[in-house]
Write a structure and sequence with these properties.
Elements lengths: L1 H19 L11 E3 L2 E3 L5 H6 L23 H12 L8 E4 L11 E2 L3 E2 L2 E7 L5 H13 L4 E7 L5 H11 L5 E4 L10 E7 L6 E4 L4 H11 L7 H7 L27 E7 L4 E6 L4 E6 L4 E5 L2 E2 L2 E4 L4 E2 L2 E7 L4 E6 L4 E6 L4 E6 L5 E2 L2 H9 L24 E6 L4 E6 L4 E6 L4 E7 L1 H16 L32 E4 L2 E6 L4 E6 L5 E2 L19 H6 L11 E7 L2 E10 L4 E3 L8 E11 L14 H13 L19 E2 L4 E27 L10 H12 L6 H12 L10 E13 L14 E10 L2
Parallel strand pairs: 6-7, 7-8, 15-17, 16-22, 31-37, 32-38
Antiparallel strand pairs: 1-2, 3-8, 4-5, 6-9, 9-10, 11-12, 12-13, 13-14, 16-21, 18-19, 19-20, 20-21, 23-24, 24-25, 25-26, 27-28, 28-29, 29-30, 32-36, 33-36, 34-36, 35-36, 36-37
Protein name: NHL domain-containing protein
InterPro entries: 6-blade_b-propeller_TolB-like (IPR011042)
């Protein structure tokens, strides 16, 4: 008995000493430490009963008061290193990828309060598995206000793989690379969660479930009491779609390429059409077999139904054309949705899920611009769909059976969903490669059989064996190839282009997209008008090519820009009106194209804003541009000397004003006869000079350079966009008056601005 009491006393003493140590757990209700004190929140009975409290969590010990003279714990050193690197894109022991020097707000940097907010970091020696990034994307969707970043122990040989990973996975959050080592990531990878660089951090194994990470963040977030309904939305499959109005800023210079990761392609034999999923540009390009662009589905990232111009997608993937309905069924991968595009009506509709989609339309777009739309549906009868095993999770491949059954497979061939087109419901889920091969292996082999006719030297697409289906090592490009009229089309994700191969001869033909003006102004270079008005400088993230001041009397002013394109570049096609964006602020309004501009005598800021709303409300696509390469604005021309002319007409009233003109030029490097065609290093450097920001660090530039060179193709065939950004500032005195002193005299003036592109 004495021995038993002694053992019990020793156990109680050990347990009490264990509880005195500062423990860090984050999972709904759990212990937290801030500063020196230890506050507790009761554990839920479910957590204690099922053991999820400790599942996936690590215990960390921090220095106690008696150990203040000791060195900092490694965890604190890691946080200090991350914090110290946020002010510089490149330092002695680090450099950032996918980050701009101007997006400090992305890291929660506040000039008054310093660093704030919740941070989730994926720290790893090697980013080998895309599933980890899928978890981070899911967290980013559920909790859009937390800061997510990557942290990797790097060496110079990683550059090609890292950039390939950024493009392949469409990673929008920045990644910090360092040559230093830290104990937390000696073995593989882990997730690190902390708050404001002040509280202790918690580490999770790389295989921790998504739900445990979500519970931990929910326990750490401080949501007001009136946000309970918002929290319910965050827990649903709708995730951030009704809350997020702004896409994450992407810093990759490759976003300016014509195609940014062409991931999937399908065909319509009857109408000679190709449907190219331009994944990282969140759109589907419709073209014919010769490359002439016929239409474009999708405008900006998001989840919204409507016409092709206003519909929003997020990384569209595999597609299937139904000739009977004249509809394109496609997977909206990062919206976890199945959608349908009516090609005749030019409308996009979401088939699954149906409870999370915003409807497009002129009035909804205007209300969205004004910030007056309802972000959360408060109708309790229409509860958001709860995430379950049947919900789609990053679907990628789409196959169609004869009995109106759709086979939907994720990118890594781990999950198969079956859907009945008639009911629009997912009626079956199959986990694991063996079940997928058993269920639809024959259909997959049938779709991949055309690869047997492909010359090996023509198809340089790199395949990741980790993503291949067991028993089908060549299954990776399942949705990346199709046939159309005796030709095979393959998505070349390394060269960012589409390959066209003659099936009979095996000859790889030149396939260049044309009629590029139909694509218009790229969303990733544009800024909504209300942001322009709200900020003093407007569109401040883009460099200004030219700025000029004029003192003129009020009235009508014709502005003519003469843009000098460098001789080493050439325009792929002439500039079209859809690729020009004009805006006036202050005491001026932009009236280019108006029928009767003389009817406007005085223009104020308020009137200017209403004019813009009227313009948005009446904005319609210009059908005459579709399929007509020669339909150019009469005031826009490319002279023989390589200059591009852009005109703009404004009306000014007394005061100061500014006219902002943006234009997008589709360019490529000029091929000079008798030149050294093998000097790819020179071409890559010049393209990076053209596309990269001046604020990019040397290491980041070297990484993108490595990626361009590994394509092994002629870089002079790459088509990219060049942004022309011009600002004309005007100072207008009072209106001159007639002899009676009551009537105004309206003057007509014209100015010419010469712009030289660097």
């Amino acid at each position: 008995m004495a021995l038993s009491l002694s053992l019990r006393y020793r156990r109680v003493k050990e347990i009490s000493r264990w509880f005195l140590q500062p423990l860090v757990y984050y999972s709904g209700g759990c212990y937290k430490q801030y500063g020196k004190g230890l506050s507790s929140v009761p554990f839920s009975p479910e957590q204690i009963a099922n053991g999820t409290l400790l599942s996936g969590f690590h215990q960390h010990r921090f220095s106690t008061l008696a150990d203040v003279s000791h060195k900092h714990a490694p965890e604190v050193d890691l946080l200090s290193f991350i914090k110290s690197s946020l002010d510089e894109l490149e330092g002695t022991h680090h450099y950032w990828l996918n980050r701009s020097v101007k997006n400090k707000q992305f890291f929660g940097i506040d000039g008054i309060h310093g660093f704030h907010g919740t941070f989730l970091v994926l720290a790893a020696r090697n980013f080998e598995c895309g599933i980890m990034f899928q978890k981070l994307k899911a967290i980013q969707e559920r909790f859009p206000h937390i800061t997510i970043m990557g942290f990797k122990l790097s060496n110079s040989s990683d550059r090609e793989n890292l950039i390939q990973l950024l493009v392949t996975e469409n990673i929008t959050f920045p990644i910090l690379l360092s040559h230093r080592t830290f104990p937390q990531i000696k073995n593989g990878a882990c997730y690190i969660l902390f708050e404001s660089f002040k509280s202790p951090m918690t580490c999770y194994e790389k295989d921790v479930s998504l739900e445990i990470l979500s519970q931990a963040i929910q326990g750490l977030q401080k949501l007001p009491s009136d946000h309970s309904k918002l929290l319910n939305v965050l827990r649903s499959t709708s995730w951030k779609q009704d809350i997020i109005t702004k896409d994450q800023y992407i810093c990759s210079p490759l976003q300016n390429l014509l195609l940014f990761y062409p991931g999937c392609v399908s065909a319509d034999e009857s109408a000679n059409r190709l449907f190219i999923s331009d994944c990282n540009h969140h759109r589907i390009i419709v073209c014919d077999g010769n490359g002439k662009i016929m239409d474009c589905i999708g405008s900006t990232p998001g989840l919204e139904d409507g016409d092709f111009e206003s519909a929003k997608l997020r990384r569209p993937a595999g597609s299937y054309y139904n000739a009977t309905e004249d509809c394109l069924y496609f997977l909206d991968s990062e919206n976890h949705a199945i959608r349908r595009a009516d090609m005749e009506a030019r409308l996009v509709q979401t088939l699954y899920p149906t409870s999370t989609v915003k409807k497009g339309g002129i009035w909804n777009r205007i209300m969205s611009k004004l910030g007056l739309e309802s972000s959360v549906d408060t109708n309790e009868e229409e509860k958001p769909e709860v995430f379950d095993s049947k919900s789609l999770y990053f679907p990628w491949h789409l196959l169609k059976l004869d009995d109106d059954t759709l086979y939907i497979i994720d990118r890594r061939f781990q999950t198969l969903w079956t859907m009945d087109l008639g009911s629009g419901k997912v009626d079956g889920v199959f986990e694991g490669s063996p079940n997928i091969v058993e269920k639809c292996g024959q259909l997959i082999r049938q779709n991949l059989s055309i690869l047997d006719k492909t010359p090996c030297d023509q198809f340089q697409q790199k395949t990741n064996d980790v993503c291949a289906l067991d028993g089908l090592p060549h299954s990776v490009p399942l949705s990346s190839l199709t046939t159309l009229q005796n030709h095979m089309f393959i998505c070349d994700k390394v060269r960012q282009r589409i390959l066209k191969i003659n099936i009979e001869s095996g000859v790889c033909l030149d396939f260049q997209l044309s009629n590029l003006g139909l694509l218009g102004f790229p969303y990733w270079l544009n800024s909504p008008p209300e942001l322009f008005y709200a900020s003093g400088n407007g569109l401040s993230d883009t460099a200004i090519n030219h700025l000029e001041h004029f003192d003129l009397p009020p009235g009508k002013i014709d502005i003519k820009l003469s843009v000098d394109v460098p001789s080493e570049f050439e325009l792929v096609e002439p500039l079209q009106e859809s690729c020009i964006w004009r805006q006036a602020r202050g005491s001026a309004t932009e009236i280019s194209g108006m029928d009767d501009p003389q009817s406007i005598e005085k223009v104020g800021v308020a009137q200017q804003w209403y004019n813009e709303l009227d313009y948005v409300a009446t904005l319609k696509p210009e059908p005459e541009m579709i399929g007509d390469d020669n339909n150019l604005d009469e005031n826009i021309a490319v002279e023989e000397d390589g200059k591009v002319w852009i005109t703009s007409t404004i009306l000014t009233s007394p005061g100061t004003s500014e006219v902002v003109i943006f234009a997008v030029l589709y360019c490529k490097l000029r091929k000079i006869s008798n030149s050294n065609d093998g000097n790819q290093e020179k071409y890559a450097a010049r393209i990076l000079d053209f596309l990269s920001s001046k604020r990019s660090g040397k290491s980041e530039r070297d990484s993108w350079n490595t990626f361009l060179l590994q394509s092994k193709g002629d870089l002079r065939d790459l088509i990219f966009t060049k942004l022309v950004h011009v600002r004309v500032r005007l100072n207008c005195s009072e209106h001159p008056k007639t002899e009676n002193g009551r009537d105004f005299i309206l003057t007509d003036n014209s100015i010419k601005v010469n712009v030289l592109l660097n």
